[in-house]
């Protein structure tokens, strides 16, 4: 009987069944180590990942991390090969600290599916979303979609300085910091007294000053120069602030969101290529049998939990159990393949399912 099987064993059985479904769809099974080199992960995500990952030191291999997810190792594996189109599926434990959600597990199972090399990005996006939607259909979940590519296009198209665009681009995935930067660049927040004093001074670092923290003296000096250069610029216009707010506020069904964003693009034409990709994806989803007219789209979706995605993003959630984490999340991450492929890019889209959450909701078997 199911209740006589240990909980972790039941989760694993659920994971194997989901993984078998992706294998039946043509994916190859993928396995990777549980201990991964911290160097690559730190290079990708910076020191922020230390707050979420479990870090240890190996006497021969140096600093290591318990696997926070599968995406980086599967991308490394694929990019080390011939680059031909391929799809992979996997399952296994991942480890993440849950300081913001102490009631959630820090060790849990993931099942994933990844597609590489699809020449038609819209069709690949629709296929991956469709596969997840089909696999999870018995649970009656709420789908959510977004597009980080639209936000990237928004920032790239702003009529402001290159330094300001670069700063906003770095913080697309940190909404609070992003909003604070917009307000600062627009002169909507008062300058802190310490920064005002620094900007008003014509001196740099004291020669006999004591260095505190990880930044070098050169990095600190460059930061001071950047702050002074930005302070000399005119504030960002209210029109730009309003355009940013308008894009981020879009939350409608896909067709209505597309229409709304095209209206905004009259004043922000840099959005148009990303909106063309959005429209092509909607058309591909219709061909895949997905009810796009009822599919939600949120321009801000994915900004807090999907750092390496740079295009289409999606998730599936239980409306009857809002206390649970997402049942599944995924999206497009072409830029990550470029980073890990030493400049060689391979289109990629995929996602992960939490079999423990599936089990909480009654299971698929």
Brief synopsis:
With 365 residues, the protein is an alpha+beta fold. It is 42% helix and 17% strand.
Structural class: alpha+beta
Tell me the number of helical segments per DSSP (H or I, 4 or more residues long): 14
Shape: globular
Succession of helices and strands: HEEHEEHEEHEHHHHHHEHHEEEHEH
Mean pLDDT: 87
Strand numbers in spatial order across the main sheet: 1-5-6-12-11-10-7
Tell me the distance between the termini. 14 Å
> Gyration radius, to the nearest Å?
23 Å
| Helical content band | 40-55%
**Runs with pLDDT <50, length 5+?**
none
> What is the strand content?
15-25%
> Mind describing the biggest β-sheet?
7 strands, mixed
Secondary structure: number of strands:
12
What secondary-structure arrangement, pairings included, does this model have?
Blueprint (H helix, E strand, L loop, with lengths): L6 H18 L3 E2 L5 E3 H8 L9 E4 L3 E5 L4 H9 L6 E10 L11 E10 L4 H16 L5 E6 H9 L5 H9 L4 H11 L7 H8 L16 H15 L6 H12 L1 E3 H11 L7 H16 L8 E3 L13 E6 L10 E5 L1 H7 L7 E6 L1 H6 L5
Parallel strand pairs: 1-5
Antiparallel strand pairs: 2-4, 3-4, 5-6, 6-12, 7-10, 8-9, 10-11, 11-12
Helix pairs in contact: 4-12, 11-12
């Amino acid at each position: 009987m199911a209740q006589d099987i240990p909980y972790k064993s039941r989760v694993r059985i659920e994971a194997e069944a989901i993984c078998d479904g992706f294998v039946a769809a043509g994916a190859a099974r993928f396995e990777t180590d549980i201990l991964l080199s911290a160097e690559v992960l730190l290079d990708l995500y910076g020191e922020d990942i230390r707050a979420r990952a479990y870090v240890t030191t190996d006497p021969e291999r140096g600093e290591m991390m318990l696997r926070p997810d599968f995406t980086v190792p599967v991308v490394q594996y694929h990019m080390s090969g011939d680059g031909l189109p391929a799809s992979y599926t996997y399952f296994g434990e991942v480890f993440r600290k849950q300081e913001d959600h102490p009631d959630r597990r820090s060790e849990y199972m993931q099942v994933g599916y990844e597609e590489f090399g699809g020449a038609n990005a819209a069709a690949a996006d629709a296929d991956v979303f469709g596969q997840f939607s089909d696999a999870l259909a018995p649970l009656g979940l709420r789908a959510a979609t977004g597009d980080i590519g639209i936000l990237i296009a928004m920032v790239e198209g702003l009529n402001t300085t290159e330094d300001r665009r670069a700063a906003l681009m770095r913080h697309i995935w940190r909404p609070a910091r992003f909003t604070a930067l917009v307000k600062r660049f627009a002169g909507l927040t008062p300058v802190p007294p310490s920064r005002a004093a620094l900007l008003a001074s014509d001196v740099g670092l004291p020669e006999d000053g004591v260095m505190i923290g990880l930044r070098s003296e050169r990095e600190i000096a460059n930061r001071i120069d950047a702050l002074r250069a930005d302070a000399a610029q005119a504030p960002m216009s209210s029109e730009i602030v309003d355009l940013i707010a308008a894009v981020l506020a879009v939350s409608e069904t896909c067709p209505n969101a597309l229409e709304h964003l095209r209206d905004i693009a009259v004043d922000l034409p840099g959005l148009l290529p990303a909106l063309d990709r959005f429209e092509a994806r909607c058309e591909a989803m219709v061909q895949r049998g997905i009810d796009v007219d009822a599919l939600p789209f949120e321009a801000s979706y994915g900004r807090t939990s999907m750092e390496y995605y740079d295009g289409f993003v999606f998730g599936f959630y239980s409306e009857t159990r809002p206390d649970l984490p997402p049942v599944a999340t995924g999206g497009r991450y072409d830029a990550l393949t470029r980073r890990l492929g030493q400049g060689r890019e391979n289109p990629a889209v995929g996602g992960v399912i939490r079999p423990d959450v599936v089990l909480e909701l009654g299971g698929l078997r």
